[in-house]
Amino acid sequence: MLIGMKAKLAELGIDVVFVSVDEPETHEAAERFAREHGLTGELLVAQRPLGPFKRALNPDWPGMLPATFLFDAAGSLRHFWGGPAFEDEILPVVEGFLAGKPVDGKSLPGLSPGLDFRETPP
């Protein structure tokens, strides 16, 4: 979905950068997947350990994937989507940002029942 939105967002002046956090031994497969799905730009790779990378993007990001970040031209985080985010959730925030509206915040979709692995089974 983000690959499909890349051209539309570029027309609005928003650059989309894709970063792989895959294990080093699976990076080639991640790159092949990205190309097969239409990514025509560079696929960046987060270096291990991931802690500094995660803190640099968003100190409050616990690491869920996928994750989407909106930064302004100065590199300040303006909005964070933790978990799957779709065009109808991302585009209004981006358009609001471009219109000068306050968009700072985060969107965290709820986990499906039974999939919250933070809880210890009884």
Cα Rg: 16 Å
Which oligomerization state do the chains in this entry correspond to? single chain
Question: Please, what is the average pLDDT?
Answer: 88
Taken from the alpha-carbon principal axes, the silhouette is globular
Largest sheet: 3 strands, mixed
Number of strands: 5
Strand order of the largest sheet: 3-4-5
DSSP strand content: 15-25%
- The tally of domains stands at 1
Into which percent range does the helicity of residues fall?
25-40%
Stretches where pLDDT is under 50 for at least 5 consecutive residues are: none
Q: Structural class, judged by helices and strands?
A: alpha/beta
Distinct helical segment count: 4
Characteristic key phrases:
single chain; 122 residues; alpha/beta; 3-stranded mixed beta sheet; two-stranded parallel sheet; 4 helices; 32% helix; globular
Could you explain how this protein is built, in words?
The protein has helices at residues 2-11, 27-36, 51-57, 87-98, and strands at 18-20, 43-45, 67-71, 77-82, 105-107. By secondary structure, the chain is an alpha/beta fold. The strands form two sheets. The protein has a three-stranded mixed beta sheet with strand order 3-4-5, covered by helices on one side. Helices cover 32% and strands 16% of the residues. The model has no long low-confidence stretch (mean pLDDT 88). The protein has one domain.
